[in-house]
Amino acid sequence: MQFSTDILKWYSVNQRTLPWRTHNSPYHVLVSEFMLQQTQVPRVMEKFKEFMEKFPTLQDLAKASKAEVIEAWSGLGYNRRALLLHTFAQDVRDKYNGIIPRSKEQLQELPGMGPYTAGAILSFAYNLPEPAIDVNVRRIYLRLFQGKDQGLPMSKKEEAELYQLAKQTIPERKSAEFHGALMDFGSLVCTRNAPSCSSCPLQKDCAFFPLYKSNKEKALFVMEKRKEPGINENGKQIPNRIFRGRIVEFVRNNQGREISIADLGKTIKKDYRNKEEDWLLTLCKKLQDDGLLEYVIDEQKIILSLPK
Question: Would you list the DSSP string of 253-308?
Answer without folding.
Answer: HSTT-EEEHHHHHHHH-TT--GGGHHHHHHHHHHHHHTTS-EEEEETTEEEEE---
